[in-house]
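Summary: Need help interpreting a holo structure output

Steps to reproduce:
1. Submit the protein chain below together with the SMILES for magnesium ion.
2. Request a joint structure prediction with the ligand placed.
3. Inspect the structure token block that comes back.

Expected: a single structure record containing both the chain and the bound molecule.
Actual: see attached output.

Input attached:
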Amino acid sequence: MEQGSLRPIQVVAVTGGKGGVGKTNVSVNLGVALARLGRRVTLLDADLGLANVDVLLGLKPRHTLKNVLDGSVSLQDVLIDGPIGMRIVPAASGMQEMVRLGPAQHAGLISAFSEIAHCMDVLLIDTAAGISDEVVSFLCAAQEIIVVVCDEPTSITDAYALIKVLNQQYGIDRIRVVANMVRTEDDGIRVFEKMRTVCERFLDVSLFHAGTIPFDDHLRRAVRKQKAVVELYPMSKVSRSLLRLAETVDSWPIPAVASGHLEFFVERLVTEPRVA
Ligand SMILES: Nc1ncnc2c1ncn2[C@@H]1O[C@H](COP(=O)(O)OP(=O)(O)O)[C@@H](O)[C@H]1O
Ligand SMILES: [Mg+2]
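--- attached output ---
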């Protein structure tokens, strides 16, 4: 393992319990916004569903993590360049296998990630909807979990169900919340407070409001043009709120201890999440 790669990297997973709440758009635009702040960002697309990161950005992946696991290419070859120098590890069918590997492949994956660790400050992970083992593995391996919610009963109940599993079964006690597709800042705070009230009442978990993203048609237009809204319409309301979110994420402390290193993220990822 390279000595130089042993330095803290911020690992942030974006999730939401439910599809269509804006996880991928938040991940992509948070990544581009962090890149604008000068951070070296890698975005790992951990969702095999439709409307992936590569589709949102109009990119065409040539290789996938599956090719890394079978030894045919290096992780460097899998990375594709996104806006403002952000790099993307595209989703692949290898993703599900990533969390269920044998020891030799574990080692292979860890060394593949340590190869690229020296050129990254932030690893963002866009997860699939739901509470599958894969999603839980990625969340438990990350340092920070952002749960995206919108002001709909199903979004709130699905996010609650996810947080409940993370807290009661895996001992996660800190969750960041982004309220998406709301009308006003006040509505965002109300959505957050709804979540916090129910979570802190029934679970042993603390919720923090990471940001509010308004409903804004600029985002939909950017999706149609396969561009990040923060790049295409940087002055729009939605972009300004995403840039603020990036500043907030950038202000979170990064663990200076061993657990903050990328190798440990991959190790945590490939070992079964510890049941609390
Ligand atoms: N802030 C927003 N304003 C307007 N539309 C939004 C916003 N966030 C998400 N959307 C819409 O919701 C769709 C689904 O978003 P997406 O990020 O793919 O969700 P998820 O990854 O949670 O399934 C987007 O294509 C877009 O049309
Ligand atoms: Mg998505």
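--- end attachment ---

Reviewer comment: The first helix runs from residue 23 to 36. The chain is about 45% helix and 15% strand.
Status: needs-info
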